[in-house]
Amino acid sequence: MPSAQKIKSVESFTKILENVKAMYVVDFTGFNVAELNELRKKIREEKGLLKVGKNTLFKIALNKLKIEGIEKFLTGVSALLLAYDDPVSPLKVFYEYSKEKEKGKIKGGYIEGRIISEEDVNILAKLPPRNVLIQNLLSRMGGPLYGFLFVLNGLLRNLLYVLVEIKNKKEGSNP
Predict the structure, then answer these.
(1) Average of pLDDT values for 25-50?
(2) Which residues, 6+ apart, have CB-to-CB distance to 143 below 8 Å?
């Protein structure tokens, strides 16, 4: 018979997992309490949550929500890194912080119904921030338009030069 505290923990985990856009299983081995608190603060700033708990209770909560496949990463020392807004920002924070401290590890992830391997999650964490990607996309989309506009302006400019030369010739021939 599960204890009331475990039932309450599963309900709490289920509640925080309901509206996540992405979740990652991370190993936080080696972080001391101060580092873990600093990491949690940085993750919260990116609208994420680092939740430490028992793997068994996480698995029960995931089963309740019918989220399958991520439980294979829940072995050993694990925590769930949850993203509520941008699915990548909290991951990038954990990746950069763990790289800086040379501690911690990303085991795998789950984004919009897909299980993502450790290698793919690490590739995702190395991508530039979302805003930078959007700026790059917009600048690449705008490049051909600016080129077309420059060509049109050149044609109008050349037409204006021709008209000015014609005007000057007519004025020069009829003084």
Answers:
(1) 94
(2) none
